[in-house]
From TrEMBL:
Protein name as catalogued: Antibiotic biosynthesis monooxygenase
GO MF term set: monooxygenase activity
Highest taxon of the lineage: Bacteria
Annotated InterPro entries: ABM_dom, Dimeric_a/b-barrel
Record Gene3D superfamilies: 3.30.70.100
Keyword annotations of the record: Monooxygenase, Oxidoreductase
């Protein structure tokens, strides 16, 4: 299993709006080949930090989706959202067990 972990920190007190946007997301990725699940969370000590984890059967499936649909999947971002500069990170993980 391949996991893409994206993290970012909201700079302008819009955490509630961002979380709501994820709850109401259009589910575009759900039918992508190789997609397994998406989880959105934030650490209790910083509600402005968002962790987005997508789980895939393999890295190639993620790359195909990212290359074709990444921009479209971000259409629901709340207007006016600002991020802390340099806070956006993407890490790629290999699942060992669970």
């Amino acid at each position: 299993m391949f996991i893409a972990l994206s993290t970012f920190t909201i700079a302008n007190d819009m955490a509630a709006e961002v979380r709501e946007a994820f709850r109401k997301r259009p589910h575009m990725v759900d039918e992508a080949a190789g997609f397994m699940k998406l989880e959105v969370m934030y650490p209790q000590e910083n509600e402005n930090e968002i962790w987005l984890m997508t789980y895939w059967t393999d890295e190639e499936s993620y790359k195909v989706w990212f290359g074709n649909h990444y921009k479209d999947s971000h259409q629901g971002i709340p207007k006016g959202l600002k991020l802390v500069p340099g806070s956006t990170k993407v890490r790629f993980l290999e699942h060992v067990c669970g």
